[in-house]
Design a protein that fits this description.
Elements: H1 3-18, E1 22-28, E2 38-44, H2 47-65, E3 71-73, E4 80-84, E5 88-94, H3 95-101, H4 103-106, E6 111-113, H5 116-119
Parallel strand pairs: 2-5
Antiparallel strand pairs: 1-2, 1-6, 3-4, 4-5
Helix pairs in contact: 1-2
Length: 125
């Protein structure tokens, strides 16, 4: 991942963590597909939390990185919201939908990225 992609993904992870998203995963798929460089996948406990997490990600990425999504899909369905930043695609699910689609299995050829490096540095960035 490029430095800009890493910075964007790190901000997404920090925002999701700050607002109590569950099981946050960052998967580098740069060598597997040309659609993006990485996926950030997380879930919330309710449809309200899924929407709120998506809103927080969009607001905080805009405020801190100056980037708005190319598009957002699924906001009305509340089971799965996709936020497309081009090189970084964010998937926020409810727990049931996440288990059903199992993107981690689908993209298992990608590389899991250790997100603790982004969460531990929250106060210093």
């Amino acid at each position: 991942m490029t430095a800009n992609t890493t910075q964007l993904a790190a901000q997404v992870v920090r925002s999701l963590d700050k607002h109590l998203a569950k099981d946050i995963r960052l998967i580098d798929v740069e060598t597997v597909t040309s659609i993006c460089d990485c996926f950030v996948i997380a879930h919330g406990n309710s449809s309200t939390q899924v929407r709120a997490l998506s809103d927080y990600v969009e607001k905080e990425v805009s405020d801190k990185c100056g980037i708005t999504p190319l598009r957002t899909e699924g906001y009305q369905s509340t089971g799965w919201v996709l936020i497309d930043y081009g090189e970084v695609i964010v998937h926020v699910f409810n727990e049931e939908m996440r288990g059903f689609y199992d993107l981690e299995r689908l993209w298992k050829d990608g590389t899991d990225v250790d997100i603790t490096q982004f969460i531990d540095n929250e106060e210093t960035t």
